[in-house]
Amino acid sequence: MCGIMGYIGKNDAKQVILNGLAKQEYRGYDSAGLALRCGESIKSVKIVGRVSELKKLVEESDLGETAPVSGIGHTRWATHGGVTVTNAHPHESVDGNIVLLHNGIIENAREIRDKLEAEGIVFISDTDTESACQLLARLYRDCGDVLSAMTKLCASITGAFALVILFRDRPGEIWCARRGSPLVVAHSDGASLCASDPTALLDYTHDLFFMEEGEIARLTEDGCGFFGFDGEPREKQSIFLQWDSVMADKGHYEHFMRKEIDEQPDVLRFTIEAHTDITSVDMEKTLKLPPDLMRGISRVQFVACGTSYYAAAVACNLMESLDDTLNVRADVSSEYRYRNIGRGDDTLAIFISQSGETADTLSAARIAKSKGVHCIAITNVRGSTLDREVDNSLLSLAGPEIGVAATKTFTAQVALLSILVLQLLKLRGALSATDEARLIGGLRSIPAKQQAVLSRENDIKALAEKYSDSKGFFFIGRRESVPLTLEGALKLKEIAYLPSEAYAAGEMKHGPIAMLDEKLTVVAIVPQNDLREKMLSNVAECRARNAPIILLATDGDEGIKSFANDVIFAPATEKELFPLLGVVPLQLFAYHVAKTLGRDIDMPRNLAKSVTVE
Ligand code: M6R
């Protein structure tokens, strides 16, 4: 959470920083601030609100005659301390020498603060960050050497942090440190930059240095130097990130989310073509597992958070349906740590994270690694922490996703996971040629079918407008549709703020059905397969309680209309692959409900795109 941007070079630092913050605003957006070196002094501007308001205030502020050539900026998602201007970053030490901003949580902040207050240092904010700022100022005053003060600071603070710092008496430098929270550094054309998210740097360069755990960096106009927390210099290789900066642009769309929904057929085509040929899986180049490994595996665990967890659940169902000799499960990362996950050679854990920076998923992967479990990661961001920490890391090829609500990364994850499941089962000798050809053929047909659903947007929009005054929604489905009910409900919760529940349809009569009345809409997922009749019985039970019913059904299933108030149709698919298609109308439905209600779709309240605290 929180977006960071730093710049030192010859250009106008305030423009570079404001642009970088605007690109990372989805990471946190309750307040924003920047500090610019203006001649001899450092001037800070902070606001409660969005980057656009910060920009206005910066333009109105007196920053002196010459454009600042270095500075740091921050967009905040509050953890410690309310949303106020005083708590917004950057923070300044009481002696005025340190200006610091932070992403993460400093766990021993209270202890540090108590000690420094006992020494007479007066704190002005309620944040954990200020303790790092005041402590660094004290350490620097004591030793007079920046690197040594930085190493002492990093040794003294616990928790997660990406820190970016200006020292008033070191005009040509910006200092950074990282443990737990992401930070990317780059040098290009007489300037050095840092950011939380690589997309903020792509206008300047694609050669990026992803800071590792326990690293310090010194940025100057001439380059970037790296050190360990022990103060020893480190050689670092840059990583070339292929993303294009226009991929992170809204283009003609009103919202990133809407653009990202439309990108799904292309994203799926790339993903499928990269890992399959016409009738078979082909992951030999991308997946580097010892050939016999899968034959010795008895447990497979899919682990992720939020929407990525629902992708995990889809993969779990697929694997289990194809191989009854494996013990397969999906877990949310934050709970994985409390389970007896097994140890050693017979277990394979697959960690899924769009950002590759989700703190709970990173912790889960570290626990699995420490127990000798075989690990695979799926992430959308090359160079992210998960990508670097897990040896077998696969990229979902969705391109940058900016809308806080995950859309194209979900379908990219499901596609890649489905192919991975087929590959793993093939290596195990547990995939029949018939199933392989059937599912690969099915996958290859999905992009065109998604396109067909997208072309029906106006019908879905009309339904969204009609039902947007519902007091809430129940999503129900069975088997492969259960993860879809969860995803459909989550989309509505996060962008429309409407109470939305998801249930395995059979569970309704064990309690939830008591809530139904004419203002609570049921969205029932009823593809035309072996479960259609059972689903329709559950739908009838809901209808008998006066709940309005929307069905998601298969093209040509005209008979289903009599069971519902409204029907959204989608093309037929292989039943295991239905989530890849069925999710698209649910995304469009949530989008248009949120739009009808006038919600802030790309930056919904209280959320942040990347959850880097546990
Ligand atoms: O980056 P990750 O995939 O690890 O993120 C996990 C969740 O935070 C994320 O999917 C979240 O639930 C989305 N906002 C859902 O739209």
Short description:
By secondary structure, this protein is α/β, with parallel strands linked by helices.
Describe the structure.
This protein is an alpha/beta fold and 614 residues long. The protein has three domains: 3-247, 4-Layer Sandwich (Glutamine Phosphoribosylpyrophosphate, subunit 1, domain 1); 253-454, Rossmann fold; 457-596, Glucose-6-phosphate isomerase like protein, domain 1 (Rossmann fold, 3-Layer(aba) Sandwich). 35% of the residues lie in helices and 23% in strands. An eight-stranded antiparallel β-sheet has the order 3-2-4-1-10-9-11-15, with helices on one face. Helix 3 packs across helix 4, helix 8 (306-322) runs parallel beside helix 12 and helix 13 packs parallel to helix 17. The longest helix is centred in the last third of the chain and has 22 residues, at 433-454. The protein is globular, with a radius of gyration of 26 Å. 5-amino-5-deoxy-1-O-phosphono-D-mannitol is lined by residues 305-308, 353-355, 358, 361, 404-406, 490, 494, 610-611.
Topology:
Blueprint: E1 3-8, H1 13-23, E2 31-38, E3 41-48, H2 51-60, E4 70-76, E5 91-92, E6 98-106, H3 109-118, H4 129-143, H5 146-156, E7 159-167, E8 174-179, E9 184-188, E10 191-195, E11 207-210, E12 215-220, E13 223-228, E14 233-234, E15 239-240, H6 256-262, H7 264-275, E16 299-304, H8 306-322, E17 327-332, H9 333-336, E18 347-353, H10 359-370, E19 374-379, H11 385-389, E20 392-395, H12 408-427, H13 433-454, H14 457-467, E21 472-477, H15 482-496, E22 500-504, E23 520-526, H16 532-543, E24 549-554, E25 566-570, H17 578-596
Parallel strand pairs: 16-17, 16-18, 18-19, 19-20, 21-22, 21-23, 23-24, 24-25
Antiparallel strand pairs: 1-4, 1-10, 2-3, 2-4, 5-6, 6-7, 7-8, 8-12, 9-10, 9-11, 11-15, 12-13, 13-14
Helix pairs in contact: 1-2, 3-4, 4-5, 7-12, 7-13, 8-12, 8-15, 13-17, 14-17, 15-17
